[in-house]
């Protein structure tokens, strides 16, 4: 068990944590589901009683952040919370005001950059679906944000309770409402990604590799079969951010 630096990615539905290896990679990842307000009892059982430092990114509710910070303060001497900056290790973001780019998107771009020069179209699917274009020179060309298929279904169900939040099969033209919901919401996400790939190729002259991360990726069928999946991409980026800040 590592007693050096640990990495924590607190999202809207899950907390991911992993030790930072000596080679800069991430160790075994633990993913803890939470209800949006409190971490479950025993969530920290996999952590050592003491370790040197923690690097965090947090987009969950304030009560969750407070619970996590309290637990880590009792275990380690140094906490660092990731933030978006204009440039880092060859990555240059497109946003003129860095704080306006969500830190999870920023870290995913760092993670992509660490995997190779690309070009990359980094797509995260969680509560929202985000697209970010990164060229071979490390220049971020900006991105897009839209509701994820799961959020679309949730919103429709909230307005019309007879429309189920879950279920159905994807098909080109459905003959059942449940299938039509799945096909429409998934289809909107797939169309957004495909349009993003076309627009990216038109902008940089190369078709980027699709790099997928986030808890909603596995639920989205009919994705580009050449796409790479990186379920812990934000943690990978946090590892790079942590080492750079330490250096």
Secondary structure topology:
Elements: E1 5-10, E2 14-19, E3 30-33, E4 51-58, H1 62-73, E5 76-81, E6 87-88, E7 91-92, H2 103-115, E8 120-125, E9 128-134, E10 140-147, H3 149-159, H4 177-204, E11 209-213, E12 228-229, H5 233-246
Parallel strand pairs: 1-4, 4-5, 8-11, 11-12
Antiparallel strand pairs: 1-2, 2-3, 6-7, 8-9, 9-10
Helix pairs in contact: 2-5, 3-4
Give a description of the structure.
By secondary structure, this protein is α/β, with parallel strands linked by helices. The chain has two domains: 77 residues, Nucleotidyltransferase, domain 5; 115 residues, ATPase, nucleotide binding domain (Nucleotidyltransferase, domain 5), CATH 3.30.420. The chain has five helices and twelve strands. A five-stranded mixed β-sheet has the order 3-2-1-4-5, sandwiched between helices. Strand 1 and strand 2 form a beta hairpin. Helix 2 crosses helix 5 and helix 3 crosses helix 4. The longest helix is centred in the C-terminal third of the chain and has 28 residues. The two termini are 23 Å apart. The model has no long low-confidence stretch (mean pLDDT 92).
